[in-house]
Amino acid sequence: MSLKAKIEAVIYASEEPVTLAQLLGLLGDEAQAELDRAVSAQQTLSLNETEAAEADPTLLADFDATAGEAVAEPTSENPDVGHTVTEPNPQTAEPTDSATDSSATDAAAVDAAAARAERARMVRLRAHFRVLLDRLIAEYAAPESDRGLEIREVAGGFRFATKPEYHDAVRGFVRTLKPPLKLTLQSLETLAVVAYKQPVTAPEISEIRGVDSSGVLGSLLARKLIATAGRKHVIGRPILYKTTREFLIKFGLKDVSELPSIEEFEKIAGQLAEQEEMAMEDAPLETVETAENPPAEETEIQSGENA
Fold first, then answer.
1. CA-based diameter of the chain, in Å?
2. Where are the alpha helices (DSSP H) in 71-98?
3. Pair 38, 2: CB distance under 8 Å
4. Is-contact 177 157, C-beta < 8 A?
5. Which residues are paired to 152 by β-bridges?
6. Phi, psi dihedral angles at 128 (to 5 degrees)
7. Which of 65, 126, 257, 276 has a 20 to 30 Å separation from 295 between CA atoms?
8. How many other C-beta atoms are found inside a 10 Å radius of the C-beta of residue 253?
């Protein structure tokens, strides 16, 4: 099984978004082995190209000509060219009394080099995982794949989700399995204020909504959709509230920057109003006349009852 297939299986099996750090801890050794094999294959390919050049006299002649330009022969004008002059090293010629300090410095340099190498290795691994994840996301998002699922980046991780065009087909089935998350209108209003104004205090929320919101905040805290974010540095030091990772997961958001803007809400409201107007215009005239002028018999019955 390839590394990309294992990543796909892990994301599918997890109920929570899978982060890059989790993938590194779980599949880091396999990813490193895959990178090592790729480097070895590249070196083998380079060696084969060199052998092919040696087998071809034309390529070999070109190589010798290039090498001849790089290594010059001594001439009468430059007798020193091609000869290596070794000069004594003043640092090694005379012994010093700081051998211990030099050893400590060398050890620190080795440790620093090892730390840099480890950081570079982790950067390469993260980049490799990111490339594989991007390929998976592109494969599931491709129109020719004809898949009902896609991989989304949610709350700093990756998870499978249903494509938007299949939501209606899945919604009915999901309702039969477990009750969905139900929020009252008051809870939705309070949660929206926290999401767009965070961090925000309870008095500020109540001022925006026009009613006391302390009870609703307690319900949202119990559902772990919001959490406390310290205290505001004003008189009374009221508690600040913010949305949580659970909020991002429930609403399928990467971060709060993906929340719709006010302009988008206004556009959606305008589209809904246009659809309602078109529906009223397309309604049959007979239905409207019947609603305005009820049948005579029904009118007589109602008159008799009133009498």
1. 137
2. 90-93
3. no
4. no
5. 159
6. -65, -45
7. 276
8. 18
What single DSSP character describes residue 166?
Answer: G
- Give 241-280 pLDDT, tens digit per residue: 999 999 998 888 888 888 888 788 788 878 888 888 887 7
Does the domain at residues 185-258 carry the CATH identifier 1.10.10.10? yes
Task: Give the model's pLDDT for residue 284.
Answer: 57
Q: Is the pLDDT of residue 99 over 80?
A: no
Q: What is d(CA 306, CA 261) in angstroms, rounded to the nearest whole number? A: 54
- How confident is residue 60, by pLDDT bands cut at 50, 70 and 90? very low
Nearest residue to 80 (alpha-carbon basis) of 88, 91, 72, 69:
72
pLDDT in tens, 43-59: 787 777 666 656 555 54
CA distance 115 to 121: 10
Site of tokens 């008095």: 203
Mean pLDDT of 202-231: 91
Q: Are 8 and 136 in contact (CB under 8 A)?
A: yes
Query: How is the chain split among helix, strand and coil, in percent rounded to 5?
Result: 65, 10, 25
How far from chain centre, in Å, is Cα 243?
Answer: 18
Q: Is 296 left (phi over 0), alpha (psi -120 to 50) or beta?
A: alpha
* Per-residue DSSP letter, 256: G
What is the phi/psi pair of residue 17, to 5°?
A: -60, 135
1-65+113-180 placed in CATH 3.40.50.720: no
Q: Which residues pair with 201 in a beta bridge?
A: 240
User: What does the chain come to in residues?
Assistant: 307
For residue 79, the 8-state DSSP code is T
Q: Hey, what amino acid is at 94?
A: E
